[in-house]
Automatic annotation (TrEMBL), chains A, B:
Originating organism: Paraburkholderia acidisoli
Ranges of residues in domain Transcription regulator PadR C-terminal: 91-168
Superkingdom of origin organism: Bacteria
Gene3D superfamilies hit by this protein: 6.10.140.190, Winged helix-like DNA-binding domain superfamily/Winged helix DNA-binding domain
InterPro entries the UniProt entry points to: Tscrpt_reg_PadR_C (IPR018309), Tscrpt_reg_PadR_N (IPR005149), WH-like_DNA-bd_sf (IPR036388), WH_DNA-bd_sf (IPR036390)
Domain named Transcription regulator PadR N-terminal: residues: 7-78
A Pfam family assignment: Vir_act_alpha_C
Protein name per UniProt: PadR family transcriptional regulator
Record field: transmembrane: none
Amino acid sequence: MSTPHAILIALLEKPSSGYDLARRFDRAIGYFWQATHQQIYRELGRMVAAGWVSVMDDAAASRKKVYAVLPVGRDEVARWVRETPLGPNERNVFLLKLRADAVIGPLGLAEQLARLVRENRARLAVYREIEQRDFGAAVLSRGQALQYAILKAGIRTQESWLAWAAEVGPLVSDASPDA
Amino acid sequence: MSTPHAILIALLEKPSSGYDLARRFDRAIGYFWQATHQQIYRELGRMVAAGWVSVMDDAAASRKKVYAVLPVGRDEVARWVRETPLGPNERNVFLLKLRADAVIGPLGLAEQLARLVRENRARLAVYREIEQRDFGAAVLSRGQALQYAILKAGIRTQESWLAWAAEVGPLVSDASPDA
DNA sequence: AGGCGCATGTAATGGGTTACATGATTGA
DNA sequence: TCAATCATGTAACCCATTACATGCGCCT
């Protein structure tokens, strides 16, 4: 999932301490992208060394260090979003890139989305074939019914994601809306 | 995800060689549960040592080793399905357990499914609150629209999974259908 | 005075990923 | 005979997970 970039993006949204980051990753953020506080502290250390983020002692809470993304780190996020190809099945990574796109201007995600859509459509077609071939019978045994249920989980997931993708498409389209 | 148990269950469905297992994990199976051939060979070695599976040279293809699950391994699968609690967000692990349930009799998954349903309903409620609180405005900026899209991905996922769970419920219910 | 939550870290383990390696079979 | 696929493995690295550790501040 690329923990460092997930952290960078979270810091772009709001500069935070390691502790606060850990809490954010425990809450809403953590449903898609997970990181423990140990990973967070380790990556923060590395990223400070790399010059991607800065550290400052919090004025209010004495023993708190607030991390913020430096321009170099911002560029690194943009580079990662643009250049790192998405594996199949990496929808949550795409969501992470969307988050980056929401914070720092448009990054041209249309092509990557289109690719995901193509792959997921293809997978859905495969599932549909299996469905017709293996589960066409009127009566299924318990085992078959369960295997069918597993397949249906896949089918539903694909369909629901594709419907979502159709909605987001316009938001990441490179062409201006009314050109 | 527990690679060893994923392999055991795949072997229960069909005794295979390491190579064939790797191919199965590359295809349909691998959409939910992934394992490279190196992991597979390592785990097969361990499980043979543990007495969970047996090895036999394939009669047809000379240099092929066919692995099959022994009774002890079968019991281990049943134990794992029953006793290992599901973390939140481990829906694919539940699917893996369903596959085990499909191969070796009913294993009493109703309770675990009910728990997942409760958790996912709660999460959906949280998302709905965020939706109303943060995205009620008529006009959203580009960034807000994208953040909303990310939230909607979560909402859709929850809804679609809950609909699926409602369908599977009867299949794993412990009570007999018409008692 | 003691316990709990805050806040930051270190250390060790185990598993996943990648690269490397070998030999046998099949088809062009 | 050359390349590609089959089939099995070893080795090294990196990362995630778990456990351990420390000290401050607040509340009772």
